[in-house]
Amino acid sequence: FQLVHDPHVKVLYNKRGVSDYALYDEAGIVERTGGVTPDQYPDYAALRGDTSDNLPGVPGVGEKTAAKLVTTYGSVEGILEHLDELPPKQRQSLDERRDRVLLNRRMSVLRRDVEIDVDPTDLRPVAFDREQARVLFDQLEFRTLWPRLLEAVGEAAAEPEAETLEAEVDVLADAGAAATRLNELASAPRVALEPRWVGEPGGELAGLAVADEGRAAYLPAVLLGDERVDDALRALVHDGGPTLVVHRAKELMHGLRDELPALRDDTAVMAYLLDPAEGKYRLEDLALRYLGLEVRSPDEEEGQLDLEGHAAVEECGRRAVVVLRLADALREALDARQLTDLYERIERPLVPVLAKMEEAGILVDRAFLDDLRADLTKECDRLMRELWAHAGEEFNVNSTPQLRTLLFDKLGLTPVKKTKTGPSTDADSLQKMIDEHPIIEDLLRYREVEKLRGTYAEALPPLIGQDGRIHATFKQTDTTTGRISSEAPNLQNVPVRTADGREFRRVFIAPEGSGILTADYSQIELRVLAHLAEDPGLREAFERGADIHTTTAATVFHVEEEDVDASQRRFAKVVNYGLAYGMEAYGLGQRLGIPTEDARKILDAYFEGFPKVGEFMQRTVREAKERGYTTTLFGRRRQITELSSDNFRIRQMGERMAQNAPVQGSAADIFKLAMIDVDRVLTAGGLRTRMLLTVHDELVFEVPGEERADVEPLVRTTMEAVTELAVPLVVDLGFGPTWAEAK
Prior knowledge:
Helices cover 50% and strands 13% of the residues. The longest helix is centred in the C-terminal third of the chain and has 37 residues, at 648-684. It is globular and about 105 Å long. The strands form eight sheets. Strands 4-7-6-5-8-9 form a six-stranded mixed beta sheet, sandwiched between helices. A four-stranded antiparallel beta sheet has the order 21-22-18-23. The protein has a three-stranded antiparallel beta sheet with strand order 14-11-17, with no helix packed on it. By secondary structure, the protein is an alpha+beta fold.
């Protein structure tokens, strides 16, 4: 409204929603506000307040009163000079908030005196890059917006439907023909492989399609196993033959029992780097997005062909052709976003490493697991009876409504926080109520034991294979930060903070004559933070090998390092790791169990002692807002759309994500590099030691006893030399007959 200061300027104002607009000139604004001119608008806003700008108004002064005061006395100063003419309550309210009103007015003024080094003629629209815009709209799946954009710039709005891929697929009926075709393809510059599975991917193959730039061939699984076919296929997928393109190569490595050394492009992994939040990376979706191609024929879509027979074979062949074409589009996109080096150096070499780990699995002590499950079941039953005794009646401990009724209605406990459905019974809330009644401690203990029993003791036995091992699946394309996750089981969540949780690691053992070796990066995220922030205090502490939490505590609490007590070190540890994850004062206070103001003082002291850390975090958020994404040391991008949200809380979450992503993502990249390098040196050395698991910043190995003396220094040296930071990387090793004892 303040901009409407001459007849040439009007403002288009949305009165309600996104469709009810009004075009205001100065007369319209005067009418809307009850007499206030655009020049007087800051005075008007200073009195009535503005919630969108967090400006508190004067109590008792609404829009009508504010307009009357401004039109009568002209300005805030005029009003304050004539307070004696106002009603008593209004006079007192304004007098007590004199400074606040003047500050409101200063904050409400729209500044028009900023120097701008741009010529207005530079702001005239020019022709847009139609093809670049089309590619972007395809990637973002703006299906309906593209024709609207064309219409807006006066071009033809019709966009052709996605093209259905047509491809010739030769079905190879006998081993001789299959071997001949594979040998012919061995001279091609590159080929794509596309598996067809009997059941789950990575299991039994039903067949395999092979495609070069011309056409596709399909090999039924019955031909795999024939010596001529196997020799020809081996020559095709190993070094010296064409480069390979595969969609989800790790599963095919399991199906063929081969590491596919000639692998050049895994289109699922490439698509993941371009959009780490997408999640599924289905070939059909990627083909439509990047190529405008439908993989399935219209006949298949209409169910006119038998997908278990000829149509499935045809589709498998077409998919192989699509994989080949898709790799080109993804390569181009990786180059454009400077992600090719990250793909070539880290993500592609990691695929066979993960496949080998899944193939190896980890041995399980079945008898110990059975005993542990029985003990946990007994403990759950005992705790349930204790809870019933506290309550004076039997109830369903796992029912939130029944628990609420018992705790807050019958026992009269005071809820810590409320949710939409009633008082909260989550773990944080219960922990804060622990002194109110003995039932709380038993309830928390029951939940801990029941989670261990249900999530692990009951879930692990069905996952044990015939070889006595659990073969987890490691997911490379599952997280936005670049970290590796796992499923069946989720090893990242195996508890380590409680004694019962740590006991679970005893389930995982080494075979007779071998041991479990653990290799854990020491405080890698804090070391990455020290490197990225270039903070001299943090760097100095790491360089002299000091305990970083003690150093932080000494800085925050203004004491000598030797005088830091256990409580101060604990506080500092929470601060250190909290900052690495973008924690703010409220979250820190919740973690430490102290008021938010006290937590804020601790953070202020931290940033005073390590000022470069605060500068780094502010810079990271600022750059993420400008670019829309963050980058790691190795160029990994993470899109953070939350930064542009209209919701304040979501924007705050986005800022925390932006602070955390470069640190956590860089640590993940370093860890992946370590896995690749360690696997390479173990293989080059002809060692029988196997890498089994990756959990957070820890690697777990199975080491034959006679190799331990060689493997331990080899693993440590390789992991510590994987990249050069401004502070040293340090690896802690542990060794024992079980994962628990090694740890």
